[in-house]
Amino acid sequence: xxxFSSTERLIANAIEKxxxxxxxxxxxxxxxxxxxxxFGKKRLFHDDxxxxxxxxxxxxxxxxxxxxxxxYDMASCTKVLATTAVTLKLMCAxxxxxxxxxxxxxxxxxxxxxxxxxxxxxxxxxxxxxxxLENLALxxxxxxxxxxxxxxxHKIGEEVEYSCVGFMMLTKIIEALTGEKLDVxxxxxxxxxLGMKDTxxxxxxxxxxxxxxxxxxxxxKRYKCGEVHDENALFLGGVSGNAGLFSxxxxxxxxxxxxxxxxxGFLPECVVEAARTDCTPGLSDARGLGFLVRRNRYSPAGDxxxxxxxxxxxxxxxxFYIDPKTSVFGVLLTNRVHFTRANEExxxxxxxxxxxxxxxxx
Length: 362
Known about the structure:
By secondary structure, this protein is α+β, with helices and mostly antiparallel strands. Helices cover about 30% and strands about 15% of the residues.
C-alpha cells in the first residue's frame, strides 16, 4: 500500500497558500488507480461578491467542498481527450492518414493547401495560435472562415506554435468527413467505450450540477460554472476541438490508465507508441500526435517522470501525464482561474505534485 500522506500535505499547503481553491487528484499505474481524493473547495466566492485578488486572505465560510464527482472544465485537455482520440480512432478505421492534406477535406486558402493532418496534431501548421472569434464575425462559421484566412505565421512544418486554431480546423475536417459533430463522435467513439460516464461537452444540458467554478465573467456578471471558460469554445456553442470538455478525475484516470496499459484494447499499442513519440525533434517544443512529450526538465510532468512521458494540461488548471517507462500516471484537476487567470502559482505546484507522486509510486 502506497503512502500518500506527503501528497496530502503538499496539496493542503497549496490550498492554504491560495495557489488553488481545491482539486481532485488521481494516481495510478498499469495495475489501476491507487489513489483518488478531493481537497478544498469547488468555489469560494459568490456571484454577487466576486473577488479579484490573486491571493485572497479570507474566503466565505459557506464555500462548498470539492468531491470526487466534481466536474472540471478540462480546457485544452480537450485536444487530447476528445479531438486527438477521435482522430486516432478514425485513422485506425482507415478514414485518413497523417500525410493527408487539409485541402482534401475542407476549402482553405492556397497558402494552407499543403498543411497535413500531421501538422495540425503537432502544432507545426504555421497557423496562428489564438484570436477571439466573436470579435471577427457574428456567426461561428463566419468567424472560423475569417480566422482560417489569416496569413500563416510560420512556414509549414518549420516551427512549433501551440495553436488552438489548428485544432478548430482539425474539428472541421473530422466533422466534414463523418457528417457528425465532435461531441457526438467523442461520446460514441471514446467516452462510452472507456466507461467515462461523467465526461461531456455542455454538461448542464445533461443534468449535471456538481462543478468547480472557474473565472468571474464581467460580461455575464457571474462566475462561470458548468459552462466553458474558453471564450472561443463558448462562442462555438460549447463544443470545439480546442476546449469545451468537462470531466472528473476518475474519468480522466480511465483515459490515462488506458494509455499506461499501451492502449488496453481501445487503441493498438503501435498507435499509442506513435502518438507519444516526439515528432518535432530540433524544434522548440516536443510534440507528439496531440500530446505534449517530456523532453527536458521544464516539463509540466516534473523532474522525475522519464524522458518521453506524455500528456496534456489545460488553462483552467487541469493536467494528466503518463510515464511510459514506469506506467505511473497522475491526474490533477484544479480550477486555478477562480483566483483570476493571472494566478500562475499552479505552474510550480504542478511540478511539485508530479515530483511527489513519482517518488511515492516508485
